Known about the structure:
Number of strands of chain A: 17
Strand content of chain B: 25-35%
CATH topology of the largest domain in chain A: Ribosomal Protein S8, Chain: A, domain 1
Oligomer: heterodimer
CATH class of chain B: Alpha Beta
CATH topology of chain B: Ribosomal Protein S5, domain 2
Number of helices of chain B: 5
Low-confidence stretches of chain A: none
Shape of chain A: flat
Structural class of chain A: alpha+beta
Largest sheet of chain B: 5 strands, mixed
Radius of gyration of chain A: 21 Å
Amino acid sequence: MKVSIDDVVLPGDYCEDIVNAGEKSKVILGPGLRKEIDKVYITKSGVLRKRAPNTYWVDSYQKRYVPSRAENVIGVVVQKAGDTFRVDVGGSCTATLSYLSFEGATKKNRPEVQVGDVLYAKMLIASKDMEPELVCVDSHGKKGRLGVLNDGFVFKCSLNLVRKVLSPNCPLLNSLKNEWPFELAVGMNGRIWIKAKTMRETIAVGNAILGCEYLSDSEIKSMCTNIASLLAGHVS
Amino acid sequence: MGIEEEKPKAFQLKPMKCEFNFLSKSDGSAILSQGDTVAVVSVNGPLDIKSTSQSIEKSTLEVLYCTKGGKPSVADRYKENVIRQTCEAAVLGSLYPRTGITVTIQELEDFGGLLSCCLNCTCLALLNSGVSMRCTYAAITCAIDESGDIVLEPSKQHLDTARATMTFVFDSREKNLVTSVTEGVFSEDTYKEALARCHAASDLVFNFYREIIRKYANVI
Lengths: 236, 220
């Protein structure tokens, strides 16, 4: 079936608008789109979106992570193998992480990473034919916010929720950050790490995030005030 | 498709109801009822599988079918095979080499047309899981009764007395025939007529898919 921008699409549909735009200038096909000979076909169900000038993608529901380059993810170290660590990021196979890709690491000065540690890392290589590779430094050799996450609490959620939380339009983090202090790391692989002062506060942040998946912006704001007042003990 | 114009009201299918994410832990799941026939499907993947069953060029599809009684039989293996081959035609496995996709089907109620219900439910669960697909597909069952008439989506009573039953699967791109499963005795002309009728009825299933996705797209 022929579809256009902002339509609900199913796999097997094709979009002529993209082909027409492609004749004039370069277009970028995001997730859920695939070029076959002279047509652009949809491969995922959801809503076809466009961002000016020429980026197209399909907003779809997904829980399973498929690694892609330059995404920040949260992984768990499952094995130390010689000079690399194997990190479980939720994809189809574990990712590798060299011990040299930490800030200030040398052959003599190895980073202190144990099996079972939680890491916040960036995907350096992610292709369907190769094992994904992670790094914990940026291109200047600085760690920035990447590295081992100590203490805290990790939980899993759908990839849509992660995108929603990270979206600049989402009021969730803006409303929560004024209520009580906490640290948060959101991995694009559907894992979220939280660290707050007490267990009550940690659980409150977790519930707020999980609760906002199907709520509108105004509902999220009222939920956050609700949770904050519950936590402060005004309402029992 | 001359038949469609003559009898537009004959293309009423049993009411279909569907719910996504019926199972919380699997990557994609759906429950579908077509009339009184109900099936649940869970899809997991792409995930790691043992290296003997890995394929370097495409993902390996594994289909498990559980009956209500739980006892596996040869007929179930055959059904698994039919569903696996249909799914393989629809899923873009080449995007996930050396991985496995597991499809688990549980029969809940069988009041006729279970195979087509399972196939449609599998398609919906695959859509929910976010696995890249070449196209969607729709399955329609029909029966040829004693007098040689074609009954779309037959009930259990119809199936008990039917001379033959047929299940056809069509893809959503060109509406081509993907799978055809037949049982019993029938003439070539009857087969062609049944095929044409099911072909026309498949549009209703595709419309239903789109409605369901539209409903769920509101909350993404």
